[in-house]
TrEMBL record:
Keyword line: Cell membrane, Membrane, Sugar transport, Transmembrane, Transmembrane helix, Transport
Species assigned in the record: Alkalibacterium pelagium
Record-level GO BP terms: transmembrane transport
Localisation per UniProt entry: Cell membrane
Protein name as annotated: Multiple sugar transport system permease protein
Length: 320
């Protein structure tokens, strides 16, 4: 009798294992499309681009010859590419610093119990709205606003007596950079605010209650509790913003095409023009793309390691 029961139990386990294996097979089937698309549209193009960076493929040629690191030497000496690199970092820094400051301030206001602001959902939707507008639409709007000589901004400055004659904003290097930076700031500060607010709401409320009992003000709680515990979220925002800033393309290209004087020519606009305009220098575009990949990886690792080093030092000080 005991033998029959044991045999029945073993048979039941085998059936359950067989069903689980069948379910596992379906899991692989549903995962397969992602990997197929990833291999076809991400993995292969990336390695083909790396291959092209070591060739002389340009124009309408169909055969490529290996030239070693000559393309990397040429791109290093390319003054237009150097200017594109510096422009990219200038535009990113000018828009990211006010973006992160305002986002932290708004997140602090939205999560403050003492302020207890009303209509937070409406304001979050309002601040996030620019992020869902297409870049082409944004470029058209700002091109019209700052157009010369009869744009709304020029009309406002003239009617207010702030200028004597219309200003051609897009012929000024400084003004063009400021406008592009402002657009990037305006489009992304809402999303950054929502991410930071989510991070603040994830902090244990007991910490803030204990701080209030000890007599800490809201600002002291924010600087001594919120800011240190927000380091992972801040790191995420910084790295994603850095990656997005290095890949800035749509607004500079649609607004002025990179001008005036290549003042808003970014690395991606440089790559696009080299690959699809003029002489179709695919080898130069591929080399610039590889350099961009290396720069993105290096700066992301640098930021990540700097945050980790600071955290480890603070932990050691706390232990001592």
């Amino acid at each position: 009798m005991a033998t029959t029961t044991t045999t029945t139990t073993a048979t039941g386990k085998q059936k359950r294992l067989a069903k689980r294996k069948n379910h596992d097979k379906w899991g692989y089937v549903f995962m397969a499309p992602f990997f197929l698309f990833f291999l076809a549209f991400n993995f292969y193009p990336m390695f083909y681009t790396i291959y092209l960076s070591f060739t002389d493929l340009a124009g309408w040629a169909t055969e490529a010859n290996i030239v070693g690191f000559r393309n990397f030497q040429n791109i290093y000496n390319n003054m237009l590419f150097r200017r594109a690199v510096s422009n990219t970092f200038i535009l990113w820094v000018v828009n990211f610093i006010p973006q992160i400051v305002l986002a932290f301030l708004l997140a602090y206001w939205f999560t403050s119990r003492r302020l207890n602001l009303k209509g937070i959902g409406f304001f979050k939707s309002l601040f996030y709205l620019p992020n869902i507008i297409t870049a082409a639409s944004v470029a058209v709007i700002f091109s019209s606003l700052f157009s010369y000589p009869r744009g709304p901004i020029n009309q406002f400055l003239l009617s207010g007596g702030l200028v004597d004659s219309p200003v051609d904003f897009f012929r000024s290097v400084v003004m063009t950079r400021l406008i592009v930076s402002f657009i990037q700031f305006w489009m992304w500060y809402g999303q950054t605010t929502i991410v930071l607010q989510a991070g603040i709401l994830g902090i244990d409320e007991n910490l803030f209650d204990a701080a209030r009992v000890d007599g800490a003000t809201d600002w002291q709680s924010f600087t001594k509790i919120t800011m240190p515990l927000m380091k992972p979220i801040t790191l995420y925002v910084l790295i994603t913003s850095l990656i997005g800033g290095l890949q800035m393309f749509d607004i500079p290209y649609l607004l002025t095409g990179g001008g005036p004087q290549q003042s808003v020519e970014t690395m991606i606009t440089f790559i696009y023009k080299q690959a699809f305009q003029g002489g179709r220098n695919l080898n130069v575009a591929a080399t610039a793309s590889v350099v961009l990949l290396l720069m993105t990886t290096a700066f992301s690792l640098l930021v990540f390691n700097s945050f980790r080093t600071r955290s480890s030092k603070q932990i050691k000080k706390g232990v001592k």
